[in-house]
Amino acid sequence: MQKKSVIASKVINQINTKNVKIKPRWIFVLGTILAALGVVVSIASAAVGLYLFQFALLHPGRGADRKLDYALSTLPWYVLPLSLLSINVGWHLLKKFDFSYQKNRLVVTVLFVLGIALGVAMIPLTNLDDLLYTRGYFRSAHSGDVIINSPSTLKPSVVDALALALDDEYKALATYDAIIKKFGSVRPFSQIIKSEEMHINSLLELYKKYDLTASSNPYLGTITAPATLSLACSLGVEAEVANAELYNNKLLPQVAEYSDITTVFNNLMNASQSKHLPAFTRCQ
Q1: Quick check: 180 and 127 in contact, CB under 8 A?
Q2: Domain total for the chain?
Q3: What pTM was computed for the model?
Q4: Most Cβ neighbours (<10 Å): which of 41, 86, 102, 134?
Q5: d(CA 153, CA 269)
Q6: In this structure, are 262 and 166 located in the same domain?
Q7: Are residues 163 and 118 in the same domain?
């Protein structure tokens, strides 16, 4: 309290002696915008970087390696130093506008670290990673467009594998849709159904790439939801276990010659094992 009084007294004295000129308000506005923007972007950038590092540790394997390599080679990493520069310029402008401006470095550091940790946690919880890989920045990597070493035509067994994969994803989506219609938009179904939609879209991209005709979802409106939410979660566990086994034991061996399809199948299998299954297990 005494320190603040001393600072206030110094400010008043310097203003009275005209040693300090009042700066235009735009300096304060610009400084605030730059500092805030820099903080948000730097936290987001650091969170994505840490999430990729975490992904590399927890999901070893061919599909995971391909996804990680593509991310590291294509992400605009220059955004992080630019955001840090934005923070420094913003602080400088704020200091210039008000030379008495003080900041608690410990509090700022703690909040920054907490923001990064929260960002890392929110990426999988909000399905942002699936959104990026199937609809956003990594769409080409997820669908296989960045892989050029695949045969241009498909063997009948590969076409059958694609059809079986799509059918399984269709059935999962219809099941979760029936559960949501009965119990409302409850977690984890409200999140995982969005992920299933993205998985279906990634398979449809392969159909489009190889000029194949995909069937529509025959299961929508035909599945009866379990009597209780707990039973619904148990059904989700069984479905995701079966889904992962299907990809690992049958579908992946059938498409081994097609690196783009293998990548997509690995992504879908990893989602079942590492994200959907734990979510359903927790809600039983």
Answers
A1: no
A2: 2
A3: 0.52
A4: 134
A5: 24
A6: yes
A7: no
Pairwise CA distance, residues 280 & 242, whole Å: 13
22's tokens: 């009042």
Domain presence at residue 136? no
Do residues 150 and 261 make contact, with C-beta atoms less than 8 angstroms apart?
yes
- Using left for φ > 0, alpha for ψ between -120 and 50, and beta otherwise, residue 61 falls in left
Q: Which pair of tokens denotes residue 252?
A: 């992946």
Residue 255 DSSP label:
T
Q: What is the CATH number of the domain that holds 198?
A: 1.20.1260.10
Rounded to the nearest 10 degrees, how much is the dihedral formed by the CA atoms of 247, 64, 212, 205?
A: 130
Q: What is the mean pLDDT of residues 244-265?
A: 84
Task: For residue range 177-220, list pLDDT tens digits in order.
Answer: 888 888 888 788 888 888 888 888 888 888 888 888 888 888 88
On whether both 121 and 175 belong to a single domain, the answer is no
**Omega prior to 156 cis, within 30 of 0:** no
Predicted confidence band of residue 4 (pLDDT cuts 50, 70, 90): low
d(CA 146, CA 138): 10
Do residues 46 and 116 make contact, with C-beta atoms less than 8 angstroms apart? yes
